[in-house]
């Protein structure tokens, strides 16, 4: 049965009969799909919608948001994935010198929360306090440096929701009607029969939807059909990656149905202004968290004040499961309230387990805390950002995880630094003999590093985080090749001019590693800090680094290196060396090669 409005008391807007959605699981992504879009070049998509209101300037902060996670259960690797990616993007923007406001938080109202609290024998607010805290703790463990953490149970947020609701009401965009339809409690959403699986099961949660009949307040989404079409045609980059934009435009083209923004049966929520018997629908409430988060506690909690502190957001980073809320509902709500639209919504893919979305409701999750405890935060951050092409789905396997981080972080980057520092200690008293700019005059390797850094920057700007990592790893690969080709250890043995040349080679390599430590810092901050320290810099100078520091020439004569110490401990395998033929065997062979190399270089 398709949901339908049974009775409308003041319905001023026609309904589009069939709002056909394309379920996210039905839209299979191919690995070959690529997107090209630069945040730097993105123009604000508001001017045509509310011309004159857009006051965007170069000085505006870069405001990035993650979804506000639903506290029906503690975080899992899926929630961590979005947050790690947002953190890497925020760190990159800070390196570029932008003022960044990185917003995350928790969505704490609704039926599922009340049910989860009851199941744990506590009140909804006790439940929210505990689960919200578990998100904060995880972000700490994962080195997530957010600027704002908003909880939708914060009274300040409630003020913003009420003011926004009243604005939309005064615009004539809210009306009351009876509604009957199929509801997925896990999505907290009425579903269209066409998007459901057999037995009316939700395609995301695989649980049957229930038939519900309610007297609700509705938001006149259908009224914004034309304006939304305009947003999309004039701002082709609004939704990224571009293949998701096509999906959203398909939804819009097939008609938009008004949606209910209140619940009569849910007590745990923000009361509807002027009707205490109903609470505001959890999505209508939660999306506003992106705005209320901007308040800094120093001002009256009004929409105007919040907006003045950084709206519109530069980038909403979300999973593809909540694309419709961010790409259709949210822009229409903002237009109704006369507010600017976010500049971009990026819907990334799912981390999957056996092909199914990892999620709290399905319970098939991977514990990020467990991964951090076993492998460290850099390994977790690097693996997911490097190995899952941002925008597409990705499956986790422990074997691939260990091979990737051992191969890239320990054997390639870590070993390059370690072997060079070893030679430096033995032959140069751990002291940089000559400025890196002089050492590399007319050196082709320096040009290669410069080109790769430029590519990495462009990839970061395009949100192609995996490709950015790839370019940075290429620098380390080129460095290892340079070392092997020049074999400074044998030049030192010759002495004289050869020794001088070998000392220069070491400076050249270390300068490349220094550049890596800046360029990779958005993804693996702790590892890069350790590299920075090994190169003889103090910790506080790390905080002050900018992307300008990826330019060749930072290492200066006289700089004293720290004692060589591995910056990334190789993860030891359970079946050490047993599987010489498989991919684990390859990493083991690499490890043995490094051991042989170290003997040769002494
Ligand atoms: N498997 C996943 N892969 C990637 N991101 C995910 C995944 N699961 C959750 N997320 C992130 O969390 C957001 C959804 O947050 P929510 O708190 O609803 O978690 P959830 O585990 O998806 O919940 P549920 O399983 O109840 O739908 C997604 O939009 C995405 O940003
Ligand atoms: Zn669902």
From TrEMBL:
<dbReference type="InterPro" id="IPR041872">
    <property type="entry name" value="Anticodon_Met"/>
</dbReference>
<dbReference type="InterPro" id="IPR033911">
    <property type="entry name" value="MetRS_core"/>
</dbReference>
<dbReference type="InterPro" id="IPR014729">
    <property type="entry name" value="Rossmann-like_a/b/a_fold"/>
</dbReference>
<dbReference type="GO" id="GO:0004825">
    <property type="term" value="F:methionine-tRNA ligase activity"/>
</dbReference>
<keyword id="KW-0436">Ligase</keyword>
<dbReference type="GO" id="GO:0005524">
    <property type="term" value="F:ATP binding"/>
</dbReference>
<dbReference type="Pfam" id="PF09334">
    <property type="entry name" value="tRNA-synt_1g"/>
</dbReference>
<keyword id="KW-0648">Protein biosynthesis</keyword>
<dbReference type="InterPro" id="IPR023457">
    <property type="entry name" value="Met-tRNA_synth_2"/>
</dbReference>
<keyword id="KW-0030">Aminoacyl-tRNA synthetase</keyword>
<keyword id="KW-0547">Nucleotide-binding</keyword>
<dbReference type="GO" id="GO:0005739">
    <property type="term" value="C:mitochondrion"/>
</dbReference>
<dbReference type="GO" id="GO:0006431">
    <property type="term" value="P:methionyl-tRNA aminoacylation"/>
</dbReference>
<keyword id="KW-0067">ATP-binding</keyword>
<dbReference type="InterPro" id="IPR015413">
    <property type="entry name" value="Methionyl/Leucyl_tRNA_Synth"/>
</dbReference>
<dbReference type="GO" id="GO:0009570">
    <property type="term" value="C:chloroplast stroma"/>
</dbReference>
<dbReference type="InterPro" id="IPR014758">
    <property type="entry name" value="Met-tRNA_synth"/>
</dbReference>
<dbReference type="Pfam" id="PF19303">
    <property type="entry name" value="Anticodon_3"/>
</dbReference>
<comment type="similarity">
    <text>Belongs to the class-I aminoacyl-tRNA synthetase family.</text>
</comment>
<dbReference type="InterPro" id="IPR009080">
    <property type="entry name" value="tRNAsynth_Ia_anticodon-bd"/>
</dbReference>
<feature type="domain" description="Methionyl/Leucyl tRNA synthetase">
    <location>
        <begin position="196"/>
        <end position="421"/>
    </location>
</feature>
<feature type="domain" description="Methionyl-tRNA synthetase anticodon-binding">
    <location>
        <begin position="439"/>
        <end position="572"/>
    </location>
</feature>
<protein>
    <recommendedName>
        <fullName>methionine--tRNA ligase</fullName>
        <ecNumber>6.1.1.10</ecNumber>
    </recommendedName>
</protein>
């Amino acid at each position: 049965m398709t949901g339908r409005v049974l009775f409308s008391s003041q319905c001023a807007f026609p309904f589009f009969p069939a709002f056909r959605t394309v379920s996210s699981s039905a839209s299979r992504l191919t690995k070959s799909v690529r997107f090209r879009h630069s945040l730097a070049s993105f123009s604000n998509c508001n001017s045509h919608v509310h011309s004159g209101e857009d006051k965007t300037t170069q000085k505006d902060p870069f405001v990035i948001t993650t979804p506000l996670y639903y506290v029906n259960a503690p975080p899992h690797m899926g929630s961590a994935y979005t947050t790690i990616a947002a953190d890497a993007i925020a760190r990159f923007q800070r390196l570029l010198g932008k003022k960044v406001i990185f917003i995350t938080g928790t969505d704490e109202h609704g039926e599922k929360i009340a049910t989860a609290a009851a199941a744990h024998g506590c009140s909804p607010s006790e439940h929210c306090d505990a689960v919200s805290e578990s998100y904060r703790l995880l972000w700490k463990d994962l080195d997530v440096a957010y600027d704002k953490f908003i909880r939708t149970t914060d009274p300040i947020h409630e003020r913003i929701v009420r003011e926004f609701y009243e604005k939309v009401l005064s615009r004539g965009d809210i009306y009351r009607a009876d509604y009957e339809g199929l509801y997925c409690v896990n999505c907290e959403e009425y579903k269209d029969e066409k998007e459901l699986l057999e037995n009316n099961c939700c395609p995301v949660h695989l649980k049957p939807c229930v038939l519900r009949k309610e007297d609700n307040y509705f938001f006149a989404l259908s009224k914004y059909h034309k304006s939304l079409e305009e947003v999309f045609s004039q701002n082709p980059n609004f939704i990224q990656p571009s293949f998701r934009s096509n999906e959203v435009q398909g939804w819009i083209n097939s008609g938009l149905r008004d949606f209910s923004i209140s619940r009569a049966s849910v007590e745990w929520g923000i009361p509807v202004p002027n009707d205490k018997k109903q609470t505001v629908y959890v999505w209508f409430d939660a999306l506003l968290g992106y705005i209320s988060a901007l308040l800094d506690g120093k001002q009256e909690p009004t929409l105007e004040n919040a907006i003045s502190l950084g709206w519109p957001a530069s980038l909403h980073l979300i999973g593809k499961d909540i694309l419709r809320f961010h790409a259709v509902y949210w822009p229409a709500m903002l237009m109704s309230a006369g507010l600017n639209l976010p500049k971009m919504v990026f819907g990334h893919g799912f981390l999957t387990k056996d092909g199914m979305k990892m999620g709290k409701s399905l319970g098939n999750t991977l514990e990020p805390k467990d991964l951090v405890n076993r492998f460290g935060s850099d390994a977790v951050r690097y693996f997911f950002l490097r190995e899952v092409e941002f925008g597409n789905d990705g499956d986790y396997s422990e074997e691939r995880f260990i091979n990737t981080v051992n191969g890239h972080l320990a054997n390639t980057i870590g070993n390059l630094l370690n072997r060079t520092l070893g030679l430096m200690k033995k032959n140069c008293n751990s002291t940089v003999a000559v400025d890196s700019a002089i050492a590399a005059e007319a050196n082709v390797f320096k040009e290669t590093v410069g080109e790769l850094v430029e590519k990495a920057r462009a990839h970061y700007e395009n949100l192609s985080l995996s490709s950015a990592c790839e370019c940075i790893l290429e620098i380390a690969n080129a460095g290892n090749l340079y070392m092997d080709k020049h074999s400074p250890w044998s030049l030192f043995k010759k002495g004289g001019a050869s020794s001088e040349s070998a000392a220069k080679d070491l400076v050249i390599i270390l300068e490349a590693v220094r550049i890596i430590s800046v360029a990779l810092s958005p993804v693996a901050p702790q590892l890069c800090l350790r590299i920075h320290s090994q190169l003889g810099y103090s910790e506080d100078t790390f905080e002050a680094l900018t992307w300008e520091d990826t330019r060749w020439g930072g290492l200066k004569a006289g700089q004293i290196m720290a004692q060589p110490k591995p910056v990334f401990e190789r993860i030891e395998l359970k079946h050490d060396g047993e599987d010489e033929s498989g991919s684990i065997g390859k990493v083991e062979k690499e490890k043995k090669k490094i051991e042989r190399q170290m003997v040769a270089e002494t």
